[in-house]
Fold this sequence. Notes:
- By secondary structure, the chain is an alpha/beta fold.
- The protein is 47% helix and 12% strand.
Amino acid sequence: xxxxxxxxxxxxxxxxxxxxxxxxxxxxxxxxxxxxxxxxxxxxxxxxxxxxxxxxxxxxxxxxxxxxxxxxxxxxxxxxxxxxxxxxxxxxxxxxxxxxxxxxxxxxxxxxxxxxxxxxxxxxxxxxxxxxxxxxxxxxxxxxxxxxxxxxxxxxxxxxxxxxxxxxxxxxxxxxxxxxxxxxxxxxxxxxxxxxxxxxxxxxxxxxxxxxxxxxxxxxxxxxxxxxxxxxxxxxxxxxxxxxxxxxxxxxxxxxxxxxxxxxxxxxxxxxxxxxxxxxxxxxxxxxxxxxxxxxxxxxxxxxxxxxxxxxxxxxxxxxxxxxxxxxxxxxxxxxxxxxxxxxxxxxxxxxxxxxxxxxxxxxxxxxxxxxxxxxxxxxxxxxxxxxxxxxxxxxxxxxxxxxxxxxxxxxxxxxxxxxxxxxxxxxxxxxxxxxxxxxxxxxxxxxxxxxxxxxxxxxxxxxxxxxxxxxxxxxxxxxxxxxxxxxxxxxxxxxxxxxxxxxxxxxxxxxxxxxxxxxxxxxxxxxxxxxxxxxxxxxxxxxxxxxxxxxxxxxxxxxxxxxxxxxxxxxxxxxxxxxxxxxxxxxxxxxxxxxxxxxxxxxxxxxxxxxxxxxxxxxxxxxxxxxxxxxxxxxxxxxxxxxxxxxxxxxxxxxxxxxxxxxxxxxxxxxxxxxxxxxxxxxxxxxxxxxxxxxxxxxxxxxxxxxxxxxx
Length: 713
């Protein structure tokens, strides 16, 4: 803890947060607490910091720890060369960013054999130092002294050339120089793309960038990633353009003495250094910087989409008939009970070429009546709209809701090891239909089984830093799972994995214990699970629910450590805890402040009261059925000016994609989202939101639909 405590003042300053809050978060993280646990159950210690701020503290902590390790490594490296002075050590200790640290280290960094290295081996470094000072009047005569056949310096020209190579490297490794050129790129560079000379089949995707130029610091992340992808595929040529003459003038003012007789050699070294060493090095650095910046924005977009998707309102516990539509191979149908358990599967062929419509209708009606089904879930892929029409034409004996379900990723799940383990005796078509049905009942519980990159939201997710993406996605899933809470006795191993304090091994151990001993009767029983110790129990218990437990608090978000407080509240209310829970009128009459103590502040007491008022409340919105225009089936049915209802399926930095029921999402560009300037599409829309749109343009050949949400009635 002592090592990371030193970072607390800097983190507090960087994030503009209270010192004591940052100190306590750092302490809790060091002790193994998770972000959801800290945010939910340690509000007094953190000043009620939310998960976003706690995550920012952890990220800063990780960065500073990495920086400190690198600082120590650099000091050791320079010391081993006997070049570490007190002044240099102080410079290294004073910097708090990796780039400045690497700039200082560059002259001492072991490097491959270069032209300057060869010149040093020939003994020309003293000549370079003399020329660099620009104080002698006859540089040629001085160079003559370094001519040596033994050292392969055959004449003064070779001696001077080698000295200039050394000077060029000195200039390129100068921290002030690198900072100056770096700032020139950051503030003035243009990013230019042109079409490659080579012919590519999918080149038209990048046609917009065949002759493109804009200031690099103003280029949006999605454009940067698109151009980088085009370059990677060999379709585009990419250049970063700066005013090299202006840059050269700055360096000449830094190194060249106008009145010196040796200025010509220094000036030549400056020009060579800029062209051959500095520009290639800084340009690579800048490209990496803007790629990382674009990656971060793309990941941010993906994370927000994933969060919204995972928190999609659930249908809840209903008996469901799920259909994975198809034409030639038929529609796979499955019956799920209210807990999502598979009861029956079959295949119907209501569409061409078989067109067994009457038989299919009779089979559906029989299943609905026999299994007392309440809802029909229909995958929105191929034959989805046709299957929806087919279902709506069936006359059922009772009201039955039919819902189109986004099936992105269902095929990935059905072919996965998780699905094979869950349904070893069924093929992928059955598993896919089950996933569609369960996704309607509880999207979060089902989607955690799928790699987030396969869910169909986000932008350029395969182009960004995969490690950073995976980390962010895992954090998002963990945040959503713990925000909703998990029913301990029905949760899958995959869902339990994301519960605070658990992970894959403890999740598996919980499932094994549950299979061997039956449903958990209390949270306290978790302590009997092998390898689930006190720390893991502390972290996970509040996020796990047990409906029907002997202690009703086990079904709530009240943490076991706060049960005595909840019992004290019940005593003051003169009611058993089970009668107090949900009794808003009684709770409103109690004075919250009277229950605070040294260990439980007002924030904790308020949370306990809120949970007693609405025990086990689900933070997700209420479920809403979405229906498309019955007259719209394909892209050919669309025309300019038409107004339709759709559902937002994906949000990017440049706009939102909307499903209007034609198997091809339309794009609402960011400029068409509202009758005002919109900086971030999330200001206006959210995933799965029902929206009204107007058709701006339709390109059936390229399958492109341009939409607008401006002033739609």
